[in-house]
């Protein structure tokens, strides 16, 4: 993706989020220069990979296959092994109308996916077979706001604004917005996007960036290279 495209998506996404009354945390608006100057005091942001995340999954077709994310808070994997501490994470996301977030599952992370407003959020769901692949024959059971929903393999679950679904590790899911762009909340166990995403197709989690203009804000995928 070109950096100019990413910058435009950041501005559009921020305006969309604010239109629902959701206010981003102050660190969202740090410039790259401010982050570099304050590197010694923002270790909690950098180490937890909090911040902006725009991905086309390495396919170069963001309008068709992509996702806008912002990680608001995130615990540490070590806390999960100890069973105490900050065991949770939170994201705010935007799935544009008919924009696919491709089929994937998580090894560790359990998550609530919440339609916070806009259009209908549609999820295609599979359970995992013994080899960890999508099971084309097994039915799917997922809790939706405390009520268990039962679907056939590959069944589609439609969430209207205010509705949510709980996805446990191993549940394969793809999703997209229908009717309009969708504001999505995610509340989960500790999030590790570097290691805990398993995709059905051989694609990447992050975009390759072509630097055609300076970044408006750094993406979490910029941190290692630009902040160390």
Folded structure, characterized:
By secondary structure, the chain is of the alpha+beta class. Helices cover 17% and strands 36% of the residues. It is built from 5 helices and 11 strands, in the order H-H-H-E-E-H-E-E-E-E-E-E-E-E-E-H. The chain has helices at residues 3-18, 32-37, 43-47, 77-82, 223-227, and strands at residues 51-55, 67-74, 88-95, 101-106, 111-126, 140-144, 147-151, 155-159, 164-167, 172-189, 197-199. The strands form 2 sheets. Strands 1, 2, 3, 4, 5, 8, 9, 10 and 11 form a 9-stranded antiparallel beta sheet that branches. A two-stranded antiparallel ribbon has the order 6-7. The longest helix is centred in the N-terminal third of the chain and has 16 residues, at 3-18. It is globular and about 55 Å long. The chain starts with a helix and ends with a helix. The mean pLDDT is 97.
Short description:
The protein is of the alpha+beta class and 228 residues long. The chain has helices at residues 3-18, 32-37, 43-47, 77-82, 223-227; strands at 51-55, 67-74, 88-95, 101-106, 111-126, 140-144, 147-151, 155-159, 164-167, 172-189, 197-199.
Which H/E pattern describes the elements? HHHEEHEEEEEEEEEH
Structural category is alpha+beta
Shape type? globular
Instruction: Give the mean pLDDT.
Output: 97
What radius of gyration results from the CA coordinates? Answer: 17 Å
**Strand percentage:** 35-45%
How many helical elements? 5
Oligomer: single chain
Query: What's the story with the biggest beta sheet?
Result: 9 strands, antiparallel
Helix percent reads: 10-25%
Number of strands: 11
Runs in which pLDDT lies below 50 for 5 or more consecutive residues are none
Span from first to last CA? 22 Å
């Amino acid at each position: 993706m070109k950096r100019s495209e990413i910058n435009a998506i950041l501005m559009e996404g921020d305006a969309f989020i604010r239109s629902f009354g959701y206010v981003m945390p102050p660190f969202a608006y740090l410039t790259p220069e401010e982050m570099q100057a304050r590197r010694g005091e923002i270790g909690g942001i950098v180490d937890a990979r909090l911040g902006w995340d725009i991905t086309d999954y390495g396919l170069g077709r963001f309008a068709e296959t992509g996702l806008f994310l912002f990680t608001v808070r995130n615990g540490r994997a070590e806390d999960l092994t100890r069973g105490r501490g900050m065991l949770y994470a939170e994201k705010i996301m935007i799935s544009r109308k008919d924009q696919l977030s491709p089929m994937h599952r998580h090894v560790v992370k359990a998550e609530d996916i919440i339609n916070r407003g806009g259009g209908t959020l549609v999820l295609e769901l599979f359970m995992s077979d013994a080899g960890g692949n999508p099971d084309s024959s097994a039915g799917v059971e997922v809790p939706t706001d405390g009520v268990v929903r039962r679907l056939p393999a590959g069944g589609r679950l439609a969430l209207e604004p205010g509705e949510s679904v709980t996805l446990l590790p191993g549940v394969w899911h793809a999703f997209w917005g229908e009717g309009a762009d969708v504001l999505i909340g995610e509340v989960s166990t500790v999030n590790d996007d570097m290691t805990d995403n398993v995709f059905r197709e051989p694609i990447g989690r992050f975009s390759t960036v072509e630097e055609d203009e300076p970044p408006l804000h750094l993406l979490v995928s910029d941190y290692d290279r630009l902040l160390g």
